[in-house]
Amino acid sequence: MSPLVKIRSERDQMSAIERRIADFILENAQLLRDYSSQQLATALRISQSSVVKFSQKLGFKGYPDLKYSIGEAVARAESGDDAVVAAAAIQDPNGASGSQLWRRKSEAEEETRLINPPDAVRAVADALGNAGKVFIIGLGEDDIHARAFAWRLSLLGILTVHNFDTAHMIASVSAANAGDALLVFCEDGKQTALSQICQQFRKAKGKVITVTRHTSNALRAHADLALLVSAHDERPHIEPLLYHSALQHLLDGIYVMLCEGSKKRYGILQANLERIQPMLKP
Q: Among 13, 64, 150, 226, which residue has the least CB neighbours within 10 Å?
């Protein structure tokens, strides 16, 4: 596993000082070769021993080993990208950027898979599959995934209440009961209105499931179960594409679990598809 992926996957279990070190390394991986442990400690205003202990906790002998491993990972990524782009450019001059994007999406999907343990993903699938009703909301671009996933759950015979308006959803959750689930999509996890909906839903003893970036955010604090997405790129036009790709892959995995985990749901899916198909014909 790449040391950078390992740091991202373990960040939430770290102490406050460790998270500061982790965030600095993740944001400055390419520059880390120029930092000694003392320089890194000085930049973060922490002790040098904290940097050493951080490295050892990740399984390295010390900071030099961590720095060397990260340097190798960065070099491999850069040379790999260059090789992929160069090969693609020879075969298809217009396809080089597409090959690089495909690689970055694959990396985001791998990181997202690593920070969502199988047991956690299974728990989300079980909560959705066993819920009396599933309330789903996402605002703006988040509604793209919310709407599509609500449709897939409906095909499986799972009763869904989908809204893209917070006022409508706060009214809808007044009908929530214990055993129901609320699935909230919010990339940055900072929407105050969504946090209020989560609070209201928990009063009904329902289970709250949040889908956000792999960051500390207010929305996750209200979650019984949290799905996390890791997608990072310095280019502002690329990062959203990585996020949506990794999230879609995560949701697809949960949908497959729901399909294959119950013969009854699978039968309902087949019956619904048969009923819907004639309606799609001109």
A: 13
- CA-closest candidate to residue 121, choices 220, 255, 264, 223: 255
Distance in angstroms (rounded) separating the CA atoms of residues 158 and 175: 16
Give pLDDT tens digits for 238-272.
999 999 999 999 999 999 999 999 999 999 999 99
**Distance (Å, whole) CA 20 – CA 137:** 32
Query: Tokens 């679990």 sit at which residue?
Result: 257
CATH number of the structural domain 3-92: 1.10.10.10
How far is the C-alpha of 282 from the C-alpha of 278, rounded, in Å?
A: 9
> What does the chain come to in residues?
282
- What are the DSSP E strand ranges found in 164-274? 181-185, 207-213, 225-229
Domain boundaries, the chain: 3-92, 118-280
Report residue 194 as tokens: 């969504």
* CATH code that applies to domain 118-280: 3.40.50.10490
Structure-block tokens of residue 113:
């898979």
Structure tokens at 254: 């949960």
Model pTM score? 0.76
